[in-house]
């Protein structure tokens, strides 16, 4: 019997069915488009993500933080049952975690017999999912809430997020890149290479021509930073925003170069919240390595 609850937020970018099957309650983000609010579906409705990309062709959705009241409501229901370890979406992506920490303080008086630990994941998308997945593995192996919290606090610095984008149109439309720059990049087939730093913030640190060079570049970075280099034996997650072919090509390249990976390289969809900011055409690779700098 588990004596505490592990919980997370919908931006783990893994299917809800998988997270739910592991007995991990989820707090959902939402986005707004055309004056209507939509939940971050996590593939509960198979039409939700395709419909999102159709919407994306017409307008740029807006996303909002999870507020303190939402956290209080979510945590209260869990604390009525057990202690809680909540791993939150990284503060480099959103300030929502501040609401989670504030809610935890306020709930101490209401639930004096319970413990509520909030971890800032410093991760994003399926990298955040990888941290939650690892925590669930340890929980299922019988580790205590303190042991899992300590592991998560240390491991969050070692989950590498390496990604590239093949479609810069959305970056131009959203104002993250000038029209002239996006046009030149498209003509020259430029793919920016990005990563998350130690604070969980996105850094664009290089660029290459063509997606195959981008994949090769990320393989080299993985070899340089993964635990044991090309002998890496941990898990690898990939996620993508409406570009499954590129994600599949990336998976093949990883499995050809890294022979000792734990199980199959997993491919996930980038959810609606993060895709609201990246647009289509992004592929990200996640693995355990040295501390992110």
Describe the structure.
- With 293 residues, the protein is α/β, with parallel strands linked by helices.
- Helix content is 41%, strand content 23%.
- The chain contains 11 helices and 13 strands.
- The strands form 3 sheets. A 6-stranded mixed beta sheet has the order 10-9-8-13-11-12, with helices on both faces. Strands 2-1-6-7 form a 4-stranded parallel beta sheet, sandwiched between helices.
- The longest helix is centred in the middle third of the chain and has 16 residues.
- The mean pLDDT is 93.
Straight-line distance between termini = 39 Å
Element order, helices and strands? EHEEEHEHEHEHHEHHEEHEHEHE
What order do the strands of the largest sheet run in, or round the barrel if closed?
A: 10-9-8-13-11-12
Q: Mean pLDDT score, rounded?
A: 93
Reported for the largest beta sheet, the result is: 6 strands, mixed
Structural class: alpha/beta
* Helix fraction bin: 40-55%
Percent range for β-strand residues: 15-25%
Low-confidence stretches: none
Helices, by number, come to 11
Estimated radius of gyration: 19 Å
Indicate the overall shape: globular
How many beta-strand runs?
13
């Amino acid at each position: 019997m588990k004596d505490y609850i592990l919980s997370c937020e919908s931006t783990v970018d893994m299917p809800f069915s998988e997270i739910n099957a592991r007995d991990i309650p989820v707090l959902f983000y939402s986005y707004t488009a055309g004056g209507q609010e939509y939940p971050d579906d996590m593939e509960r409705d198979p039409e939700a993500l395709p419909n999102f990309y159709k919407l994306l062709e017409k307008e740029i959705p807006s996303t909002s933080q999870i507020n303190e009241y939402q956290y209080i409501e979510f945590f209260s229901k869990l604390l009525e049952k057990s202690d809680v370890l909540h791993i939150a979406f990284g503060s480099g992506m959103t300030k929502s975690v501040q609401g989670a920490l504030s809610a935890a303080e306020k709930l101490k008086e209401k639930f004096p017999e319970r413990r509520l630990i909030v971890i800032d994941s410093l991760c994003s998308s399926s990298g955040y999912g990888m941290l939650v997945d690892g925590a669930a593995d340890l929980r299922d192996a019988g580790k205590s809430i303190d042991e899992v919290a300590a592991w998560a606090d240390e491991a969050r610095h070692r989950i590498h997020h390496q990604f590239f984008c093949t479609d810069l149109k959305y970056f131009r439309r959203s104002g993250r890149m000038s029209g002239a720059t996006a046009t030149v990049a498209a003509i020259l087939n430029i793919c920016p290479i990005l990563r998350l730093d130690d604070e969980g913030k996105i850094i664009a640190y290089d660029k290459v021509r063509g997606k195959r060079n981008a994949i090769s570049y990320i393989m080299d970075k993985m070899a340089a930073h993964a635990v044991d280099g090309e002998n890496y034996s941990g898990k690898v997650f990939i996620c993508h925003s409406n570009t499954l072919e590129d994600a599949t090509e990336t998976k093949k390249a990883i499995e050809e170069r890294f022979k000792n990976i734990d199980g199959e390289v997993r491919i996930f969809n980038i959810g609606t919240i993060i895709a609201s900011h990246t647009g289509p055409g992004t592929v990200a690779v996640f693995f355990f390595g040295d501390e992110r700098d």
